[in-house]
Amino acid sequence: MAQIRLSKLRHSYVPAPKGPEDYALKEIDVTWRDGGAYALLGPSGCGKSTLLNIISGLLTPSEGQVLFDDRDVTGLPPDQRNIAQVFQFPVIYDTMTVRQNLAFPLKNRGVDAATIEARVGEIAEMLEVTDMLDTKASNLGPDNKQKISMGRGLVRDDVNVVMFDEPLTVIDPHLKWKLRSKLKELHQKVRATMIYVTHDQTEALTFADEVVVMQDGEVVQIGTPVELFERPQHTFVGHFIGSPGMNVLPCELRGDHAVFEGHEVALEGPATGTGGTLKLGIRPEYVRLGETGLPAQLVKVSDVGRHFVLDAMVGNTRVKAVSETPPPPTGSPVNLSFRPEHTRVYRDGWIATEARP
Question: Which CA distances in Å does 357 have to 99, 165, 240, 350, 354?
Answer without folding.
Answer: 56, 39, 27, 20, 9
